[in-house]
Amino acid sequence: MIFNHFHDAYLYTLAEVYHKPQFYNQPRGNRSREVLNYTYGIESPIERICYVPERKTNIIFNFAEALWYLSGSNNLDFIHYYASNMSKYSADGRTLTGTAYGPKLFAYGDKRLNQWERIKEVLREDPDSKRAFLSIFDASEVLQLENIDVSCTIGLQFFIREGQLYMSSYMRANDAYRGMLSDVFSFTFLQELMATELGIEVGKYYHNVASVHIYETDYVQTKTVLSKAKQIGTVPAYPFPPMPLKDNRSDLQVVFEYEQQLRQGTITLKPVDIDRLDIDDYWKQVILLFAVYQSIQQKKVIDHTLYQKLIPLYQMLVQQKWESYFSIIMEEM
């Protein structure tokens, strides 16, 4: 199946796995519904989110996870700040192994291979190449039940076809309700970033999963999302902003610096501070999201001055995710 946006692909997948499961099973004791060998494509990978309000898409975590990968870090403290439940996957309380894709991208194996730069070289040397494969799953990972953090993603493959960058992801397993939401966001974000570094347009994205499943703990939420989706149709309320058509690496470094300082609490930012940054507006919006999140984490409120500077799409997503905080804002206005 080919869909225009991830929104459509996500809802279709939820319905297929929930209503037409191929198997009922309970890996590691967790009851689930499962479909094997599942594939779909997305015409416009930039449209990488679900718009159903009841799904409460966490746009801040989505950007944080993609940037965590791009930072090359496996440190728990980075991603734990945005999703505290990630700590349960860490064996030593400090790092993550299977879940942390960054080291696989930029320092793979004993040779610490920078796969990101290598596949760029492959595609520049031979634009028609079928060798631009980025490995994530490591055969040395412990597969026994003692290890809760095994890489779900086998790898990502890039193709230049008719002047556009196509990408295929290959996953051994994907949680349709939870994991797919953040995985497709991160993978298509990487696809778009690679396209800007190669100076070409973004082509289609293909999602290939050996085992796509929904756990019993998410059955009620799945039914709610599918029910509410019928009321909003398939057209996104606002388009997702495209990444600047340039080499974004210098802007990304600024984002990394400010993300770390906001996360560690060494700075606070006002809208004027972000406006003054010498980076594209696209990346200023990402820093704004992290600044909004700092106010949520530290003060348990939404900083209204920062929130008002977000583009309408991000405002909508933040309000959907942290709906209870906005009653406080309305009382203060």
From TrEMBL:
Signal peptide: none
Residue runs in coiled coils: none
Residues in Thymidylate synthase/dCMP hydroxymethylase domain copies: 9-231
UniProt keyword annotations, A-Z: Methyltransferase, Transferase
EC code: 2.1.1.45
Gene3D superfamilies the UniProt entry points to: Thymidylate synthase/dCMP hydroxymethylase domain
Gene Ontology MF annotations: thymidylate synthase activity
InterPro entries the record matches: Thymidate_synth/dCMP_Mease (IPR045097), Thymidate_synth/dCMP_Mease_dom (IPR023451), Thymidate_synth/dCMP_Mease_sf (IPR036926)
GO terms of biological process kind: dTMP biosynthetic process; methylation
GO cellular component term of the entry, any: cytosol
Stated name of the protein: Thymidylate synthase
